[in-house]
Every structure is written in structure tokens, then in C-alpha cells.
Amino acid sequence: EVQLAESGGGLVQPGGSLRLSCAASGFAFSSYAMSWVRQAPGKGLEWVSAISDSGGATYYAGSVKGRFTISRDNSKNTVYLQMTSLRAEDTAVYYCASGRIPAPLYNWFDPWGQGTLVTVSS
Amino acid sequence: EIVLTQSPGTLSLSPGERATLSCRASQSVSSSYLAWYQQKPGQAPRLLIYGASSRATGIPDRFSGSGSGTDFTLTINRLEPEDFAVYYCQQYGSSEYTFGQGTKLEIK
Predict the structure, then answer these.
(1) Which end of chain B has less Cβ packing within 10 Å, N or C?
(2) From the list A106, A112, A114, which residue is nearest B92 (CB)?
(3) A86 by DSSP, 3-state: which?
(4) Residue A41 confidence (pLDDT)
């Protein structure tokens, strides 16, 4: 069964850091790009970041560029999102999602994980 | 950044009816790189359509997508009770992916 499982969410103070993980199973993880997408409470979807199959190419939304870093470990079938300088507006459920081609761009997302909640508050 | 505007914001229909959801882009979407997702409360989004008109694996044929350039449509024929949810379009033809704000399909 194809599965993505996020972890690492929680409550963090403004200015703090957090690392999210997404463990993949049931498909050839190292052959596909991966992305993170977030959803603020009661709001729509916002793409955050993407990484190529090898990890050699990464892309970020303007709202997180310079603060978030995406990476992956294909030996562990896991993608990460390191978040620093967190702000209240980063509060959201963070989903990882698999692309359908190796390149980080020109990808639609399938499947998605169930998400992990990040709350930035003092 | 390509801005996607979905309409209507909320659509109230009865089971058995046809739903027509619109997604308009602020500039042309390359090669019809447009997808549609369904999201139910408390669940992750689910891919329905990619490439503007290709159905994802396991998606019933009552779901269909059409359009090109800046205007795209998701049509759901013969609505089933499980189809009432929020629907998002997404463009993936530029270096910064964007989503529409969503259309809520509710039972009338």
C-alpha cells in the first residue's frame, strides 16, 4: 500500500525552529520528486517547497524562502522540512505529497500524507 | 505568480444533479498543467484530475476535466452523497505552484 506519514509537528514559539519528517512506503520513493503543502486552519492549500528525486534541485514559495529547507534521504525513504524563524502565519497542517515525475517542477501531487499540525504561538 | 480564481465559492446542489466548477488563471497555464483535488473535512486532499483532463487512478468517470489556457472546468455528473466536499484546482506549469481558493460543494 502506498503511504506517506508525516511527523514532527507541534507547538513552537515565534522565532523558533522545527523539523518535519515524511516517511514513504509502498512505492519507488527515490524515483519521484516530493513536495510540502500547507493549510492554515479553515483556509486553502498553499504549496511550500519541492525537491527533485535525487535531492539536487529544490524550490520554495516566496513566503518561506530563506527560512525553510527541504531535504531528503533516499536510503531512509524520508523527506524533511527544516523550518526556522517561525512566525504565527506559519501555523498550519503540513502535508507531504509525492510528485509523479523525478523533476521537482511540472508535477501534480499523488499521494498525500495525512498531515502534521504546526502551531506557532507564545 | 499565477493566481487561480475558482468560482463559485459555494455550490448548493442535490444528489443526482450535475456540478460545474470553474478555475480561471491570471495567465496562461503551460501545456494544460492543471490538476483538481477533492478534500473532505479532516482528510488530506485527493487527486482527481491532472493534465486538465486525465482522470487519476480509481476516480469514477462521472468526474471530468476540460479547458486550456486560462479557463478550466471540473464537471461532476450525477452527484453522489460522497461527492460533497471542497474542490481545489492547482497549476504546476511554473516554478511556483499555486492553488485556487477552493469551491465548496454542499448538499442543497
Answers:
(1) C
(2) A106
(3) coil
(4) 96
Q: Which residue of chain B comes nearest to A114, CA vs CA?
A: B44
Q: How many CB atoms lie within 10 A of CB B10?
A: 10
Q: Taking the CB of residue B82, how many other CB atoms lie within 10 A of it? A: 10
Q: How far is CA A64 from CA A68, A83, B16, in A?
A: 6, 9, 43
Specify the residue for cell string 486532499: B45
Q: How confident is the model at residue A101 (pLDDT cuts 50, 70, 90)?
A: confident
pLDDT at site A93: 98
Q: Tell me, what's the pLDDT at A102?
A: 85
Distance CA B5, CA A42 (A): 18
Q: Do B37 and A109 touch (CB under 8 A)?
A: yes
Distances in whole angstroms, Cα of residue A97 to Cα of each of B69, B93, B98? 26, 17, 14
Mean pLDDT of B54-66: 97
Instruction: Please write the tens of the pLDDT for every residue from B67-85.
Output: 999 999 999 999 999 999 9
Considering only the beta carbons, identify the residue of A46, A107, A114 that sits closest to B44: A114
| Cβ proximity of A32 and A101 under 8 Å | yes
Q: Which residue has the cell 479557463?
A: B71
Please give the pLDDT value at position A82.
Answer: 98
Does the CB of B35 have a partner CB in chain A at under 8 Å? yes
CB contact under 8 A, A108 and B102: no
> Least CA distance to A110: which residue of chain B?
B47
- Can you tell me the distance from the alpha carbon of A114 to that of B18, in angstroms, rounded to the nearest whole number? 29
